Amino acid sequence: MHVESIPMWEGSGNNYAYLVTDEKSKDAVIIDPANPSEVLPSLKKAVDSGIKITNIINTHHHHDHAGGNSKILEAYRVPIIGGKDCDKVTKTPEHGSTFTIGDNIKVKALHTPCHTQDSICFLFEDGNDKAVFTGDTLFIGGCGRFFEGTPEEMDKALNQTLAGLPDDTKVYPGHEYTKGNVKFAVTVAQSEPIKKLEAFAGSNKQTQGKFTIGDEKQHNVFMRLDDPTVQKYTGKTDRVDVMAALREAKNSM
Ligand SMILES: [Zn+2]
Asked: What residue stretches are annotated with the Metallo-beta-lactamase domain (predicted)?
């Protein structure tokens, strides 16, 4: 599988759309093409090179993820797979259900309600190559705000659903937020993995696909609710209380 990152609203929203192609069949999907003026040129280039766009995929309904659907549909009349509240959605896959792209890519839908109730992460597998597109649920070194959900739901999304994926699964989030996330993380703990992430974010503008679920378990404080250092920072010991306190502290940074 080939993943092309398409940065959108650089310097403000810092979103990513992703064009994921099955190299053998040349079938491809476009994930969260929210800003058509920045995405359509990449799609045209891909199609001109023989690639066929088969679906739009949305991670959740927010405008900066699903707000480009109508415009993209004018150019590519393809079904939209996404959460139930996404604009023009055709199909909302059940939690744990799978579909394929071309000959080789198997996609599994993982419901992760909290940031929005319709948030879905998508695990892509092509042989040993694994990638998860996490929208605004999991960021490199952080997580999304709890707009429509509870700390308990985010704990389940991050620490059961996503933490249960193989450690070598690469993480492709919906935004480039790593610098801000690690700025917060170092106030919570100064572990080696967090310092390493800080150094990487300091010298790399883009961090998507550079870290794995295994890395997140080490440097993402929202995935370390049982870590004594993290508990000490929050003054709490119950997992859900620790999650809530971390989110509040990050929000007020
Ligand atoms: Zn969002």
From this structure: 14-175
What number of other Cβ atoms are within 10 A of residue 110's Cβ? 22
- The pocket of ion ligand 1, defined by CB under 5 A, consists of 62, 136
Domain boundaries defined on the chain: 2-251
pLDDT exceeds 90 at position 253: no
Instruction: Give the whole-angstrom CA distance, residue 61 versus residue 120.
Output: 10
What pLDDT, in 10s, does the model give residues 16-70?
999 999 999 999 999 999 999 999 999 999 999 999 999 999 999 999 999 999 9
Cα–Cα distance list, 154 to 55, 101, 137, 236 (Å): 28, 29, 8, 17
Q: Six-digit token pair at 157?
A: 């999304």
Task: Quote the CA–CA distance of 38 and 162 in Å, as a whole number.
Answer: 29
Element (H, E) at 27: strand 27-31
Q: What is the mean pLDDT of residues 138-163?
A: 98
* Separation of CA 212 and ligand 1 centre (Å): 21
Q: What is the DSSP letter of 94?
A: P
Q: Name the residues annotated as catalytic.
A: 60, 62, 64-65, 115, 136, 175
Pick the CATH number of 2-251 from 3.40.50.2000, 3.40.50.300, 3.30.230.70, 3.60.15.10: 3.60.15.10
Are 152 and 146 in contact, with CB atoms under 8 Å apart? no
24 CA to centre of ligand 1 in angstroms: 33
